[in-house]
Write a structure and sequence with these properties.
alpha+beta, Barwin-like endoglucanases, Ribosomal Protein L25, Chain P, nine-stranded mixed beta sheet, 18 strands, 24% helix, disordered N terminus
């Protein structure tokens, strides 16, 4: 997966030349903390979920494993057979780097209230992707390249120019173009859905719609939570998703000015109803709660298995101390940067949101590289 840049580690050819070099060291599967206790069949199913997308866009080195996992005649029938699949086809590497300690956070699919029609209560639009929005980078790389402009607007003369900022959009830059998918009660709800990248919207007529990411305006992402910490509105220890949400909703006028500091703005599309669909990651990979991981694609390929070890993470699985399990790179995120930086998909709804909001723990990654 990576090219070796420091002495002391054993390296193999990189999976893809685009990946930034980082040090790695071969490790045995039996030396992975908690490896024997994991549910490898669940990991196998998560790996299978991304195999079709990987075969379309991923590196050739992953093709063999992806073809095998999609062959019904070779499908394992229990966790032991699934464990052998990973041990036979991959080599685990401990990730070693000079960055600060690894960090694992969480994200989820929020459930929000909305309306198909604009009303006095539901008056903040959720916009679909404008037809003049142009991708400057592949969507799989937008997280890794989030420090630069990733999208632009093609003007009437065919020239590329910066797209409207969050403030410009909220002040009416897209009005009159018929881009409104539905309406929510306040800009904080729209912002929270944009941060998570998807949302399940309960509509006033009793129906529901699942919305997923369809593009962004291309401006770099700025953390609102980090801004409030640096402004002494919060201490580092007190900042979490629920605290941020409560602070923003307590004064919407105050919140608007803070939200505008993040010029990035996300557009959505309707995937379908709750019954018809499930949450999707990058390249429309189906997300699996507690098995899907958002990563920095400077270091990992989408679809790559990664063994995640966060000993201090105790709130994810009830009655289980620590978090040690094989996950799969299914998604990216603007704030996910670094060789040991990951975002754990916790599922949908308020319970998943509570878990995601509490997740901010040191972590070690062990990357599984195809043999």
């Amino acid at each position: 997966m990576w090219k070796n840049t420091l002495s002391g580690a054993r390296a193999t050819p990189a999976m893809d030349d685009k990946l930034s070099p980082v040090l790695r060291e071969v490790i045995r599967f039996e030396d992975l903390p908690g490896w024997a206790d994991d549910d490898h069949y669940a990991a196998y199913q998560a790996f299978a979920a991304s195999a079709p997308a990987v075969l379309k866009t991923g590196p050739a080195s992953m093709a063999g494993a992806c073809h095998a996992v999609l062959d019904p005649t070779r499908h394992p029938h229990d966790a032991l057979a699934a464990r052998r699949f990973f041990e036979d086809r991959f080599t685990p590497y401990k990730v070693i780097h000079d960055e600060p300690a690894g960090l694992l956070t969480g994200y989820y699919e929020p459930e929000l209230a909305g309306s198909r029609a604009k009303t006095s209560t539901y008056c903040v639009p959720v916009f679909s992707r404008p037809n003049d929005l142009v991708n400057l980078v592949d969507e799989a790389d937008r997280g890794a390249l989030s420090g630069q402009v990733t999208h632009a607007r093609r003007d009437a003369d065919g020239q590329l120019t910066s797209f409207f900022t969050r403030r410009e959009i909220e002040e009416g830059a897209l009005e009159g173009r018929g881009l409104e998918l539905l309406y929510m009660a306040d800009p904080v709800d729209v912002f929270l859905m944009q941060v998570q990248g998807s949302g399940l919207v309960r509509l006033t007529d009793g129906s529901s719609l699942r919305l997923i990411y369809a593009g962004k305006n291309g401006h770099p992402y700025t953390s609102v939570g980090r801004y409030l910490i640096e402004s002494d509105a919060f201490s580092e220890s007190a900042m979490n998703l629920q605290a941020l949400k409560d602070w923003l909703k307590a004064d919407l006028e105050r919140a608007r000015g803070v939200l505008w500091r993040n010029e990035s703005y996300v557009f959505f599309r309707v995937l379908g109803t709750e019954e018809e669909t499930r949450p999707l990651g990058t390249n429309e990979i189906p997300l699996t709660p507690l098995r899907s991981l958002a990563v920095d694609t400077s270091f990992y390929e989408l679809g790559q298995p990664i063994y995640v070890c966060a000993p201090g993470l105790d709130h994810i699985v009830e009655g289980v101390s620590g978090f040690r399990r094989l996950m799969v790179a299914h998604d990216v995120g603007s704030a996910i940067k670094g060789a040991e930086r990951g975002d754990l998909f916790c599922g949908s709804g308020s319970s998943a949101g509570s878990k995601a909001g509490m997740t901010k723990h040191p972590v070690n990654f062990y990357a599984l590289v195809p043999k």
